Amino acid sequence: MHAFRSHTCGALTEAHVGQTVRLSGWINRKRDHGQLVFVDLRDHYGLTQCVADSSDDTFAAVEVTRLESVVTITGTVLKRSDETINTALPTGHIEVRIESFDVQSAADTLPLQVNSDTDSGEETRLRYRYLDLRRTRPHDNIMLRASIIQSIRARMVAQDFTEFQTPILTASSPEGARDFLVPARLHPGKFYALPQAPQQFKQLVMVSGFDRYFQIAPCFRDEDSRADRSPGEFYQLDLEMSFVEQQDVFDAVEPVIRGVFEEFSDKAVDQEFVHIPFADSMLKYGNDKPDLRIPIEICDVTDIFRGSGFSIFAKAVDNGSVVRAVPGPKCGSRAIADRMNSWAQSEGAPGMGYIIYGEGEARGPVAKALGPEKAEEIRQATGVGDGDAVFFACAAESDAATLAGRARVRIGEEQGLIDPDVFRFAWIVDFPMFERDETTGRIDFSHNPFSMPQGGLKALEEQDPLTINAWQYDLVCNGVELSSGAIRNHLPEVMYKAFEIAGYDASVVDEKFPAMINAFRFGAPPHGGIAPGIDRIVMLIADEPNIREIILFPMNGKAEDLMMAAPSSVDDAALAELHIRRAPVPKKT
Length: 589
Prior knowledge:
Helices cover about 30% and strands about 25% of the residues. The radius of gyration is 30 Å and the shape is globular. It contains 19 helices and 24 strands. The model has no long low-confidence stretch (mean pLDDT about 95).
């Protein structure tokens, strides 16, 4: 018999009754009944109940061994009596009578409870992540993640994509986030950067003559944490295709994403991935990652308020503000209206105006000031009925969209309008190529600087930059952005002109993107791609609210690895070898 196990802890059934077996694992739980001690032995595969009698030589050792100690048990498989069968376990019809009990590794007193779903707090869980991962839910999440990645790989290969590995040490480039820098010992004063994404490399793979590339790629960005974004590093399904248009990318990605969600979730998966222009998304949903499970669409009612009797909004409109109306199904009460107003104030807005509709009339200060005809126009525009309300956001366009979008989500949540058992997908398309920085007034890229503008060089030369759309797209699911992508620019003259509009002269392009701009001079195919986020896909399928729940060894919100004590200090000798001098930390005033 093998030294540690003849079977795993999830393998034994009634077919093994009478056999002598050997199991190894962790003591998940013990129940001492005086004359009997029951041990639930757990390994990666499952759990088996084992039992020792007070007359057994093993009884004393079993009694004193702590939970989470690693032990090897040899014994005979017995059938449980009918009243003790546990149908919740695959091994619930049997138990193992302990005849030999060997402690492989004794556990100290535990800092967190492994055999329950009790949350010991994030700091404890992350500091002792190897214990936390023994718990059922985190363990299952990581196995789900592994299975999803395996499925994605198989689906990509089935579509004739080839997996390549791109470099981890590369050059720093202005791609929108802070780089993680690595000092170059052999080149004093110079630094490598960890890639924010394999963006340039995957485009160069296409220029190199390969046709369909993919990679489960690690990406590194020195950004703050939030619930759907891990600080420091994340993984994405990075892919690129040659000789394609936008729809070709969609046709390649949709079966992979739809198939994975259908394979690993019991929820319904919408078959249609709707296309929504960016401008429409901002107007109807208040953001570019709409949750389409909420049956509410925002509408613009600026013209109804222009010159109206509701002077606060009318004056704001004259000064350039817009008014967005958010339908409120089943919100037709003063109590709900007051709650929405207070909520808006907590969001930093002056408040939210409202109209309540019921019994054939419109009620509230806004309705009174507007008059019945304009109140009816609003009702017709928003499609509300008796018992409903309409809420208003009046501000500069971007601020009004943001407040209205958040109000839409809040109404959906409070009124139970969000179907929790469905995944709804959307492609957000026609992103603006450029945007104006509200602080500096300068024009900059609004999305990916390597995207092809719609209209090509002609558009860059002849159009107002703020009217140019790019062949850029995002994939959104249930209000979560899963990925961004684009049909890439592959022409040097287009690249130079696009960067010139954003305030970068040709020397900057030559210095920051030498490989890309030089490669384009030697024949580059039209190409495009996308990069769905692995972490967010798993988070949605696992139905976890925080992305750290589906990452093997995550950092905390301060970008600290509490388990490994990273980041850590290094001694002066190591710094000297890297030609780095430690600067004093400025004192806080």
